[in-house]
Amino acid sequence: AQLADGGRFAIDVTNRDFLVRNFRETTVFERGDSFMIDRLSYDTSTSRMRNDRIYIRSGVRRVSFSLRLYSFPELSALLARAGFGSIEPFMPEDRPQAGIAPRIRLAARAL
Fold it and tell me: Which residues are CB-contacts of 57 (< 8 A; sequence separation ≥ 6)?
């Protein structure tokens, strides 16, 4: 599938620059009797974050995954190379962006 000429594409991803500045190796989330533990590592040479996640709820379950993280300029350049024009940051009006935001939200128009 592809966008029609003038169609809009929106993307919302973790901001690499925010993550690097606010990096924590371990995060614990608790809800009732359940826990989710994230053990993170970041590889600067590949811009990949690895997450070894542990769920504790009626037993223990472990999963691992990695994410490729992008900076605003990298993501904008990728969209431009893919043929998108008019690439602009998007932020809901009630949540103005101040400094480096935790998320990159972009809207691009198909040429």
Answer: 33, 34, 35
